[in-house]
Amino acid sequence: MNGKKDILISLMVALLALFSFSIDFSSLDSLVLCFPGYYELFFSLLAAILFHRVKKLRTTGCILSIVYAVFLVIGRAMFKYDWDERIPFGGGDQLYKWLLAFPGFFFVSMPTVHAAFEVVESKGKDWVNSTNTIRMDRHPLLYPWMGILLLQSFSYLCCYPGIMIPGDNVMQVYQFTKTFVDGGAELTTHHPVVHTLLLGGFIWGGKLFLGSETVGYGLYSAFQMMFCSFCLARMMQFLKDNAVASSIRWGLIVFYGFNPIFSNIMAVSTKDVWYVSFLLLFIIMIAKELQGKGNVLWLFLTGLLCLLSRNEGLYVVLVPLCTMWFMKHHRKCGISVAAALVIASLLIGNILYPAARITPGNRREGLSVPMQMMARYIAGHKGEWTKEEEKSIAAVLDIENVAKWYDPNSVDPVKTISNGNAKAKLTGEDVCSFLWAWV
What we know:
- By secondary structure, the protein is an all-alpha fold.
- The protein is 69% helix and 0% strand.
- The protein has helices at residues 3-21, 38-51, 59-77, 92-128, 142-159, 168-181, 193-210, 213-241, 246-258, 260-265, 271-290, 296-309, 313-323, 331-355, 368-380, 387-396, 402-405, 412-421, 428-438.
- The radius of gyration is 27 Å and the shape is globular.
């Protein structure tokens, strides 16, 4: 530090950071300061020390710091919040606290972001332009795949034949059984049809060819684990192609192999596992396109797999594709693939599924978030709505019983009681009217 000016600035930064972290956002008073804890002192001193390491403020770093600061303030405001009394976006007291806390959070974020830029610049050449070759690079796809698969196999053996979700997976197996075993027509788009066919096909295939549904389910879990591990290995290959250092790639293999979260998720029979795997492949295709090494066909196919593996998958893949409109050299690719995916979605939903007697899922599935919020409102503020609003809400929710079924951790109970007692088939007008009342 140079002179009294630097000492004064560092002291101001430390006080601002300490001040922001010690504000009690859950208090009814306009401003309440809590006694600072160890982590608050640590962050404030860290902000002051790193502040003087910043050689030059960057526009990108400042923008990122503002974004981080906003989310830190929001997160702090929602910490231990009494939702029955107030909401973090309401009341002048909360706004004052936000404005007082924002500078401190900004000064915590800004030096950290800029220091990160400095580290990447100083070490970037060693990380990105690594020319060291290791045994794994002899087969940059096969060896990482085998390594991750070997590490994941221990979790698979412990979880054999797999971890089935009581609600969703049981319903999917029921639909498959009624349709292909009993000869009915029970398939719906409530869950991705491809995943329903895959799960039910393995289970009933196991019974038909191996005499055991359990073995069939175990094979499904093994196939899922192999595919997910392959997608992670494909990511490793992509990193190798971009000269990412072997130490980082080895670290990622160990992380994905030993992290119990990934080990357990790979054994769960949920559509999300497949969706995330397809999304990873799609992201790789997007990155290759931006590098000028893209393949339009593979970009379309990976986007289509995302679309088929989750009902809102289309909207997720359309966002990055449509942003290519602002990139002159990638505009044609992005818009053409986006248009092709929209057309494919319309053809599948309006021609293929009806022809196969696959019925649309309940519209309530797309209203989970507003339904849960509205259910919470009904449970705590009974009768605080007009007759017109009540009519709009009653079409989607079972107003009389929703308070008893409300669970702050899951919207499924609210959907279950509403599917049974509220309007059976929602129209577009019902959905729009409900959303307007929610807004």
